[in-house]
Amino acid sequence: MGNWIDIVFCVQTFYDTTHFASDPDAPDTMVKVDIPSDFSFNTFADQVVIHCKSEWAPSAGHEFKAGSVVSHPADAFLRGERSEFTVLYSPADDRCAYAGSSETKDYMMVHTLEHMVTRVYVWRFDAETKSFSFVKAHVAENCQSFSASGVDSERSNELFVTTDGFLDPVALSTATAPDLETSSPLKTNTAWFDTGGMSVELKEATSDDGTKVPYFLVRGAGIPEGAPAPTVLYGYGGFEISMSPGYSATVGESFLREGMCYAVACIRGGGEFGARWHRAAKKELRWRAYEDFAAVAKDLVTTGVTTHGTLGCMGGSNGGLLTGAMMTHYPHLFGAVVSQCPLLDMERYVLLTSGPSWIDEYGDPSKPEERDALLGFSPYHNLEKSVDVAIQERGFDEVLAKRGEHIPATLFTTSTADDRVHPSHARRVVHKMRALGIGGKVLYHEMTEGGHAGAADNVARAKVKTIENRFLVDALKREDTGPTLSSL
Length: 488
Known about the structure:
Radius of gyration: 24 Å
Mean pLDDT: 94
Distance between the termini: 58 Å
CATH superfamily of the largest domain: Alpha/Beta hydrolase fold, catalytic domain
Low-confidence stretches: 480-488
Strand order of the largest sheet: 18-19-21-20-22-23-24-25
Strand content: 25-35%
Shape: globular
CATH class of the largest domain: Alpha Beta
CATH topology of the largest domain: Rossmann fold
Number of domains: 3
Helix content: 10-25%
């Protein structure tokens, strides 16, 4: 439908891109697309489609809210005209965010996440009038992930519809746009655990600055009503990546079936509520992500889901930094910590592997003001401080604190072959903790292959997941003794 438009883009930072498109008056040349560098740019038929990550006023009479998605005839836009916009999505409030788009021959689907519920707005494009008209909106079930994508967007309106949930394996169906609700099942992944007696709910915690932080809580089987249960809290909180419901056989088998709970925190730094939610924990504001995660941990205890001694946390990569910060700054909130392929030394991260590409996320340690912020939360640099805080602010016995009894049982896992986050982050933290005499409850496991995934194949993946999950079960179900090397 319409004409092909060649697009070339130059990525300047993790979040800034310069776009170029074929000149409508000279197809063999490219013109720069005049939009802010953090906006996303796409095409549909003979329209350009733009996601505005901040407020945008491209011309008189046209002002768009942050998070809006707008279209404009492509040729006119590339010639500099700004008069024929169609608003395909405008968020109702700051808890609504654009989550991508998909297309078929005649329809464009705008996917959103609104108060943690997926909605898909279906628009029909009329090739004769060259205009969009709104058709309908599809609302996914609560606590379930939903997506719809074209089977062959050039020739048909058929869709692949995918659903996923904490207790529901991934299911694939077909539908025909615009009727996303009327689908024909094709395939459902294997259900690896019995979900009888389990439940999922979306809850909220209140962070230190009053911000409401959503989290998903999955209650395992056989937990007496009102009784606290061992719980694993997962988080990420970075790079505008949203945490969404998803089926995990290992979570079900290791935790839920064993009478434990599993929670997923949707903290600032992620993309659950759009670019503003992400920017609220970037660079010098990174500490807010940790306050949010700690707030969820406190809420799980306050509401009787678990106790601090039977609450564990787990995260990988940036999530490994998150859980490393929990071990260092909030050790009193957890009985166990698992930090997977983590960043931990935030002064030297830019000198290792992919580190320089993350400066726009964390900050630049060569700039004094940004370095101060990085050192303020860097787990590697706050190990000694954690001892002083335990003694002075938490009233911990000085002798016990100095030998690391305030640190929860902690496991670091990494890979020798990790080409994204260098294994020296975890190696050096463990070495420093042992040199300080506070590494008594700290274990370390390094795979030799697998890159940033931490495992090269399914056999290795099963091994490392068994180590991590067994560690948490032992620590949280037997908090009086904690895990040992022999138990792993």
